[in-house]
Amino acid sequence: MFFIFGLRSKDKIVGSRVGQCEVCGAVAAQTLVRRTTKFSLFFVPLFPVRPARHFVVCTNCGRSRYAAREELISA
Q: Which positions fall inside the Zinc-ribbon domain (predicted)?
């Protein structure tokens, strides 16, 4: 008997805004992304293994950074 298990991360776009990127310095759309990681058994996600993390992704350069608390409240 064998088990197929693993972890799966899924991204969900929460919102977006126009702002200046801290990495490339361009004024472009910044997308707020929520990432959840769940334990999967036989390719079925069962329960989260870590709290959700939030990232801000620049649409100009594609770089991401952790979102500050103020950005989460305003979104």
A: 20-63
With pLDDT > 70 as the criterion, what percentage of the chain qualifies? 97
CB burial string 50-59: b at 16+ within 10 A, e below: eeeebbbbbe
Q: Which two tokens stand for residue 54?
A: 């939030």
23-54 tens-digit pLDDT: 898 999 999 999 999 999 998 999 999 999 99
Domain of 63? Answer: 5-74
State the pairing for strand pair 44-58/64-66: antiparallel
Extended strands (E) in the chain: 5-20, 27-41, 44-58, 64-66
How many domains, the chain?
1
Question: Rounded to an integer, what distance in angstroms lies between the CA atom of residue 25 and that of residue 29?
Answer: 12
